[in-house]
Amino acid sequence: LAISEKHNAVAISEKCNSAVAMNKKHQTCCSKCISERDSEHNDTASLLFRMSIKCSGKVSKWINLKKLSRDLGWRVARATGWTTELRQPQMEVCLHVSDGHVTSGVPLTRFPLSRRVYLGDSGLRAPIAWIISQLASIKAGDIVLDPMCGKATILIEAATDIGLLGNAWFIGSDRDASQIDRALQNLSTCDCSNTTSLLKADGLNMPYRNACLDVVVCDAPFNQNHLFALTPQMFYYKFLTEIYRVLVPQGRCVLLTSEQLKHTVLLMVEGAEENQTQKDNFQSEGATSQTLVKGSKTHKDCYEARMLLCH
């Protein structure tokens, strides 16, 4: 019994010593964490920031951006202890106000996501071009067309996707020869030039066979200066008619347009789908004979298909 009690006492003593050591270690860690937190707090308290506010829609007509920026900047400074600095801020607090939403946030990257080392002359903002390509759900073996490619930003964003690199074929066309030249310059600086072709062609009168493309992506012109001599309604009617003609059954199309024209375009899409369904019922044999096999195309098949696209 005495030996047992002695062993228990030794065990208890060792346990207490261990607990004391752990407690000291915990206190040391806590002190270190507190000092780091205080240091971070001091650094954060002296942070220089500025407000960056953008408005879109009807609210942009009556919102005073300068007053809103000043008022919100004062509130952010009061809540965080930060200091307002308009010329050389360390942080930018971004706010986007639209008719239906207010979105706020801070940048997570040192440089803008829109900056691309492989785009010497970008047109459409690269993040928007990337979103368009992702919405199109492009798969390996697809043939993708941008009928008004401009500087080919959308095609390059899609073609440089790691999962698609070298496994899909991309075609860009534009009626403006100067835009094609700029697109060629952009293609020369990236890794997708071997799978991307460019040609001068009218997007309202495409030189492609019926049902030969899997995907159409486009930043469709919605500014009156870019609609040539046509009204927006007539332009989109002709454009959507051509898109439905060249797409394979179950093909996909992603168009970027303005908020004002969105409902008009959607109504035309519904009408074009109904018209195409009626045509398919009467011309199913002809359409089937011209449809490229989808889902089993290899890179070689894409190259061979490119040679057959034009009339």
UniProtKB/TrEMBL annotation:
One of its GO terms (biological process) is tRNA methylation. One of its GO terms (cellular component) is tRNA methyltransferase complex. Pfam families: UPF0020 (PF01170). Signal peptide: none annotated. One of its GO terms (molecular function) is tRNA (guanine) methyltransferase activity. Residues 115-267 form the Ribosomal RNA large subunit methyltransferase K/L-like methyltransferase domain. This is Ribosomal RNA large subunit methyltransferase K/L-like methyltransferase domain-containing protein. It comes from Arion vulgaris. The gene is ORF36432.
